[in-house]
Amino acid sequence: MLRGRTVVVGVSGGIAAYKSCELVRRLKEGGASVIVVMTSAAAEFVTPLTFETLSGNPVVRDLWKRPRGAPDVPPAAAKKMRGNVAHVDVAEAADCLVIAPATADLIARLAQGVAPDALTTVALACRAPLVICPAMDLEMWKHAATRANVRTLAARGAMIVGPAEGALASGLTGAGRMVEVPEILEAVEHALERRGSLAGARVLVSAGRTEEAIDPVRVLTNRSSGRMGFALAEAARDRGADVTLVAGEASVEPPQGVTLVRVTSAREMERAISAAAPQADFVLMTAAVSDYRPIRARAEKIKRDASTFTLELAPNPDILARIAAARRPGQVFVGFALETSSGAKNARAKLEKKGIDLVVLNAPGDSLGRETNRVTLIDRRSSEDLPVLAKREVAERILDRVVALRGRTPKRAARPGARRARGRR
């Protein structure tokens, strides 16, 4: 998994920096090319010469001075390194960026997109998977600002590994220790495994909510924010897929780098999905589509001049059932089921009725309008309950499953410990 890959190790200023020496050594033993990027504070704990000796490459630690000599990286990475700007070259060459340790200060800068030094600049320029290993004192980890920053990074797709609990440098005991090197290696390998797992695949995602006009002002709609569908589209894009995103109204901006088709009503979504589905390898239907529409939308705004008002509704098309019925061999279809009762039973009935491969079950209180979600993945053979995770990580877990359903995934590494949210930037 590591052989032929370029792993950039970011080191910030914490006592746990000594563990990063072992991390670099183990990455090299696994066959990776390693480039270390340090903050000035990190150099107070471990000298750059130590990391240069262990990695066999110059250390990047200054925005203004180029490191001595060109790094030893695989030919594919070397082609991306134009030799003009060191931090850009390193960001382009990276197959994975792992920051260990990541202090509270560094996490805050990453969350805010502030880049005053070489490490944060590399992180801002890097499109490779980002693995963050927090290390700080107990109260710093518990602080609301730190937790908010971690949630922000997880929502963007960063993999948060740790922290572990134990004795801290301050003398306190609790969460704040950087996890041990084997767990970090496991996370890096998992991030690398995900990257490129959909290279060349065509992925169709529906997202957001539809709106059905009642009059020129009012609509029938629902509370879907679009976050889950947009996270899926972004995660599929980052795995190398060619993504078409058919999106209704949403509360957040759609991701860049996908083919975006905007729609409003259920029938508009049906036309767009029906046109794109035959070419797709994976069809992920996350959109909250209105089940009914007004039989006739009023041409004028309805006045409140009566004590009651009757609205006649007609059913909208079942988009997923229609496109799944016309599926070609090899396609994988995923539906979402939002249930308020008998969730597993209804989700499995949906799986069978629509003839699809996977249903993602959730409940309104766990998903609508939130940045996190708690879902159950139900296919024809099994059911897996996931914990509360950032929606980007939920997206990654769904994509892990659909790739496996198509038989295109190698044996996965076991997931590292419980206190994390994984993904890709």
Query: Helix fraction?
Result: 25-40%
CATH architecture of the largest domain: 3-Layer(aba) Sandwich
What is the mean predicted local confidence, pLDDT? 87
Give the overall shape, derived from the CA principal axes.
Answer: elongated
In the CATH hierarchy, the third-tier topology of the largest domain is known as: Rossmann fold
Unreliable stretches: 408-425
Outline the biggest β-sheet: 8 strands, mixed
Helix segment tally:
15
Write down the CATH class of the largest domain.
Alpha Beta
The tally of beta strands, per DSSP, is 21
- CATH homologous superfamily caption of the largest domain: CoaB-like
Strand order of the largest sheet: 12-11-8-13-16-17-19-20
Walk me through the structure:
- By secondary structure, this protein is of the alpha/beta class.
- It has two domains: 6-194, Flavin prenyltransferase-like (Rossmann fold, 3-Layer(aba) Sandwich), CATH 3.40.50; 202-405, CoaB-like (Rossmann fold), CATH 3.40.50.10300.
- The chain is 34% helix and 21% strand.
- The protein contains 15 helices and 21 strands.
- It has helices at residues 17-29, 48-55, 75-80, 86-93, 104-112, 118-125, 138-142, 144-155, 181-194, 227-238, 266-276, 319-325, 343-354, 364-367, 391-405; strands at 6-11, 33-38, 96-102, 130-134, 159-160, 164-167, 173-177, 202-207, 212-213, 219-220, 242-247, 259-262, 282-285, 292-294, 313-315, 332-338, 358-362, 372-373, 376-379, 383-385, 389-390.
- The strands form six sheets. Strands 12-11-8-13-16-17-19-20 form an eight-stranded mixed β-sheet, with helices on both faces.
- The longest helix is centred in the last third of the chain and has 15 residues, at 391-405.
- The two termini are 20 Å apart.
- The relative contact order is 0.11.
- Mean pLDDT is 87; it is low at 408-425.
